[in-house]
From TrEMBL:
This is DUF3108 domain-containing protein. It comes from Massilia aerilata. Residues 82-108 have a biased composition (Pro residues). Residues 1-31 form the signal peptide. The keyword NAD does not apply. Residues 59-121 are annotated as: Disordered. Keywords: Signal.
Length: 341
């Protein structure tokens, strides 16, 4: 009785439920027909293929620059391009090997304006070897002059000993005679681009006059002692002419008066490199007044005589004072007293 009353009262609700169940069943059947199975994974989207198009350097907005690749038709799946082969890793190229540079040449000596000749050694019996060629300095030969000095031996005047430097030159040839603490010396020769060019030189040792000759044709120096010879070099001097050559170097340019001045000097038996250290400027009291001068000192090994000289620019750089320290330590000095032009 109660069931019949319930059905009569809710008939409309039951009809709606039956219709809903039928609709859901139809939808489930339709979905089952479109999908292959309940466990089939969803299809992954096709990868997007890109193509890089090199642009030619033409005007902006041209057809070639704005052309697009054709799109696939609806329903047609885009083909995935085959992967390009992996490129081999590029290694940075090793830097090219730097060529080995030769050792830089030895610097030119102060004041030289031409390259020095290659170093050579001339073996001379009883003499030191010539191991270095000095460079050529700028020179300006001083005018002719005769300088007289007072000679002091161990601080005491020696009136019986003459002391002078007699330099005479016409630019093409010269004569030079010196007497004083360095002994009696003479030199004859020519004037050239390198300054003084000796041809003959002599020095008195006791009662003998030893002569040295310079042959400009063969370029040899012949020594009177032992009859040996050596190769001459540019700017070579003898014991007398080196004093005036130093004056010519200072007279040409004061800038050359620095560090060490090196000059090849031929004495009676050998060719040596004389080195004169520039010690700076000093005032020297002379017989013609106090003169500013450049002080140079010759380098000497222990036990050898050492010569110092003072070159005065006011006297064409000729020496206004000389000092000789002998091997035994005794000191002799000669100071300028008069200049004759």
């Amino acid at each position: 009785m109660k069931s019949t009353a319930f059905l009569s009262r809710n008939r409309r609700l039951l009809v709606l439920c039956a219709v809903s169940v039928a609709l859901h069943g139809a939808l489930l059947e339709l979905a089952a027909q479109r999908q292959p199975g309940p466990l089939a994974p969803p299809m992954a989207p096709a990868p997007l293929a890109l193509r890089l198009v090199g642009l030619a350097p033409h005007a902006h907005g041209s057809a070639a620059a704005t052309q697009r690749a054709p799109e696939p038709e609806p329903g047609q799946q885009a083909t995935r391009p085959a992967p390009a082969p992996a490129a081999a890793p590029v290694r940075p190229a090793a830097p090219p090997a730097r060529p080995r540079q030769a050792a830089p040449p030895a610097p030119a000596m102060p004041g030289s304006n031409t390259a020095s000749a290659p170093a050579t050694a001339q073996p001379v019996p009883g003499a030191r070897l010539l191991v270095q060629m000095p460079g050529r300095y700028r020179v300006s030969l001083p005018p002719s002059a005769r300088l007289r000095y007072e000679l002091l031996l161990q601080g005491r005047p020696a009136p019986d000993r003459p002391a002078y430097l007699d330099w005479r030159s016409d630019g093409a040839s010269y004569t030079l005679d010196i007497d004083g603490l360095a002994g009696r010396l003479s030199s004859r020769g020519m004037g050239g681009d390198a300054g003084i060019v000796p041809l003959q030189a002599s020095e008195t040792q006791g009662d003998r006059a030893l002569r040295t000759s310079f042959d400009p044709e063969t370029g040899e120096v012949r020594f009177a002692a032992g009859g040996a010879s050596a190769q001459a070099v540019i700017g070579m001097q003898d014991r007398a002419s080196v004093l005036v050559q130093l004056a010519a170097i200072g007279r040409a340019s004061t800038e050359q008066m620095q560090d060490v001045i090196r000059i090849a000097v031929a004495d009676a038996a050998a060719v040596v490199i004389s080195q004169y250290q520039v010690l700076g400027q000093e005032d020297v009291a002379t017989g013609i007044g106090t003169l500013p001068a450049w002080h140079l000192a010759q380098a000497a090994a222990p036990g050898q005589a050492r010569l110092e000289l003072w070159l005065a620019p006011s006297q064409d750089w000729l020496p206004v004072q000389l000092r000789l320290t002998a091997a035994d330590g005794s000191v002799s000095t000669q100071v300028l007293t008069r200049v004759e032009r």
